[in-house]
Amino acid sequence: MQLNYVVKRVGMFFFIVWLAATVNFFLPRLGGGDPVRQQLIQQAALGGSIQTGMEDMIASYDEKFGLNTPLWKQYVTYVQDMLKFDFNYSIASYPRTVLQILGQALPWTIGLLTTTILISWVLGGILGAFMGWPRSPRWLGYLMPPLLSLNAIPFFLLGLVLIYVLAFRLGWFPLSYGYQPGTSPDWSMDFIRDMLHHAVLPALSIILVSIGGWATSMRSMMVTTTGEDYVTYADAKGLKDRTIFVRYSIRNALLPQTTALALALGQVIAGTVIVEVIFAYPGIGTVLYQAIRGSDYFLVQGIIFVLIVSIGVATLILDLIYPLLDPRITYKKA
Q1: What pTM value is reported for the model?
Q2: Chain segment 135-149, per-residue pLDDT in tens
Q3: Which of 4, 10, 201, 267 has the maximal Cβ count within 10 Å?
Q4: 3-state percent breakdown (helix, strand, coil) of the chain, nearest 5
Q5: Which of 272, 281, 130 has the alpha carbon at shortest distance from 195?
């Protein structure tokens, strides 16, 4: 791999991150309004009266958060903070910082979505490989319609169905939350069992929908691969079906699947926001939803920036290791 290409790709990565971060800064501010004023008015309304000295409090918090400075100065400060991964304080949860909130929510989202993506990728890949293999049992072909039907259902809609049937009607699983309310997260076996019990329904809603997509793409690649000359030649040589299936067909069909898996893992933080919201799961999706509702600029910026960087890093790593995954790909000039 040429050094110039690596430098070019890294430079492109930083440019895309800067461009996306810039949009991330200006987009929440297009609607105008004062997030500090909104938060204080909401808190005063919950108290049943309008607090005295409201304007003084707004001015004090605006100065604390740097919202009383010109927009260009806010942008310069924002870029400097992003370079240091300092996302300031949360407006809605002051004095908690954005990093503290992210540190509590990220493990929930990463744990849930990484597990569900890997499980659905493996199961979908295996099903798709067998469905695309011409010598597979014919009954596997009947799995395609239900898989495609599930894949067409949004995550959150299937989640609502699962909540109604398995939680509300049958009572097998909790309706919502990541653990029993009133308990404190720790590493005890009781809490881990409780956490896994609460994670079944959101995980199941994601897995059941995702399997169909992975199976469909893997089946398409298997159909294409089994028609290649090298597979025909291997069959003509008299190689065993198992050898042709594993070493010639699946091995070559896995490359696009691996690419899609890397991109999916890069977007794991984005996850399924609505799924986390309907299950009240304590992950990034729920935090982002609450931050948008509360006009918490700094928390929204922090979450989106982490998402941008994670997707960019996954894409960059995938682009750089592609020649190692497939020797036919090279970045050297002919």
Answers
A1: 0.76
A2: 777 777 777 788 888
A3: 201
A4: 75, 0, 25
A5: 281
